Amino acid sequence: MISLKPILISGREVLPLIEGGKGISVSNGQSSGAWAAAGGVGTFSAVNADSYDENGNVIPIVYQGKTRRERHEELIQNAIKGGITQARRAYETSNGNGRVHMNVLWEMGAVEPILHGVLSQTKGIVHGVTCGAGMPFKLAEICVSYGVYYYPIVSSGRAFNILWKRAYSHFADFLGGVVYEDPWLAGGHNGLSNSEDPLKPEAPFERVRNLRKVMRECGLSDAIPIVMAGGVWWLNEWADWLNNPDLGSISFQYGTRPLLTQESPISDAWKRKLVTLKEGDIFLNRFSPTGFYSSAVNNEFMRELDGRSKRQVAYSVKPMGDHVAPFAVGARGRLVYLTPHDKEMAEFWVSSGFIEAMRTPDTTLIFVTAESENEILKDQIDCMGCLSACKFSNWAQNEEGTTGKKADPRSFCIQKTLQAISHSDQVENQLMFCGHQGYRFGQDPFYANGFVPTVKQLLEQIQTGY
Length: 466
Fold this sequence. Notes:
Strand content: 15-25%
Oligomer: single chain
CATH class of the largest domain: Alpha Beta
Structural class: alpha/beta
CATH architecture of the largest domain: Alpha-Beta Barrel
């Protein structure tokens, strides 16, 4: 048994064990409420959260708007309604134990009105907000206006220092903690900077020690916890972090392990897939329409995206340099110019069934099937503005409603695929985010013989150190 001392989080002493928020609808009121009921901190996702009808069934989201802006307004209202629904469900399920937090992404569409909409209706129900995927400068101001603690998600001391100097120093009393999300170990979107190599992971201890150093330089007490997120599986592997004066107060966030619990809302097909994962099946990629790196299972969905990018050649609209070989594109057969080698490759892909050449913002062509092209174009047209800026559809949350760049067919509609995997048994042909320790489900004896624990059983097991 690991000796875990309760620590103060969002105004109450709780176990330093936090459920990581996972959208869309993967961390909901049921799972987070159960985590809080067991004495920890439950975190539901307020990223396009589910609402229910009078029979308790999920209400499918069907957009009626004819324009992106109209659909964007529908998305905001649905998100607020769903967030309030999940907050109340989590609070009721917790029986007043633990703490209930909600998670949002700063780069999600309309994050500010959604935060205001949910927090204004959940006073005393939501105790904290975690937020990453970008630089959430206004997070503190919004949370403090509702008396709620805020927990920025960062991947370096440098990132926190910028947030502190520009905004958080004015709202220090409600800084509940700082989540360090390791960019090489965590699931979902990762905060790799341009100076960091995705293929050269750095040990988290030194990065977290540096984060604490920065927090001390900002005048913050060691009692404000740093939450270690990403790569946490067996607590005995982190024993040297506990009561370590270099690190101060430490808590641990679990994002992947709660997927395989009885309260987890993901499908049985998804749960069965988790125990089949092998080391190396989860990898960093940059296909996300956010532009961030992300960690996901290498399934058919990811392989199709990888294939699109590999079937790619640069072109020019006029003969230039080595680009002298004419190549007809589209129904009108407009000529572009490739290198002779690339033209051979393009003709080979066309003969293999990838007959459609789609232009990218980088003056390249990718080659896809006619079916794939139709799906890509439809998804781009159906955009509802779920991100503040989307490279796939070129939507942006500004007056123009566009990034000003060509839509990028090498990416995908993240809203569509996350809704599909969250509400069906489709797992091979949808995006499956996962932390890099996910392969351990199949190796950990705790899950032997198909055992799926309750959240309470999982937290009890975690406290044994395994």
